[in-house]
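Bug report (template v2)

What were you trying to do?
Predict the complex of my protein with cytidine-5'-monophosphate.

What happened?
Run completed; filing so the output is reviewed.

Input:
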Amino acid sequence: MISADKIIIALDISDSDKLGHMMKELSGQKVWVKIGMEVFYSMGPDVVFMAKDLGFKVFLDLKLHDIPNTVAQGLKSLCRLPIDMVNVHAAGGREMMEKSFEAIGNLPQRPLLIAVTQLTSTTEAQMHLDQNIQGTIEASVLNYSKIAKDSHFDGVVSSPLEVAAIKKLLGKDFLTVTPGIRPIGKEANDQKRITTPLEALALGTDYMVIGRPITQSANPKQALLDILEGK
Ligand code: C5P
């Protein structure tokens, strides 16, 4: 069994009717929802309030990445919404992350502040070629994670395959949020570094982000229930 509060459903659905229908179908399960750029850019803050009204915790996944001041002020603005988790790209650097924490760290009810390390769609070869970062993906993820922790972040987004190394280096309380989850028999889509939900749990992940295996299933609620049952 997997506890529902470890599951974050990625709602990458820009049609507002379909999105509303999906949220209603999945409500009552005590899971989180992840609102990303596709939805937020088309529907705006209303979608956050809609999710909260249906009882979901909300991860606003906008992956901010800009100069430190712009990201810090952007985060402050986002924190006027009732969100429970928010993120920036660690590639924005130490100063950007420090300013992010300074901007929202003292808010009375701030969301968890998370840094994206290497996207789970990125292979090591792509990282070498496109980002000119040499070495292993894991080394890059650990480097970004260490800087995030130094900057007082609550945790990072990574592949489940990197969770054990992150926890070993930075402690078990440093949170890991892991996309790239595929139940057995579901398509990988564009994800490259993947595990099943039970494998992710065994690897120690705190939150697993699952999108298309639920939202593109013929029966999303059943797909979620199957995952919660460890299928
Ligand atoms: O549909 P799927 O389960 O692949 O959805 C994964 C979600 O997690 C997507 O919304 C994607 O943007 C997000 N994500 C990711 N890898 C990261 C960070 C976020 O796949 N490193």
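What did the reviewer find?
Residues 137-150 form the longest helix (14 residues). The beta strands are 7-10, 32-36, 57-64, 85-89, 112-116, 155-157, 175-178, 207-210.
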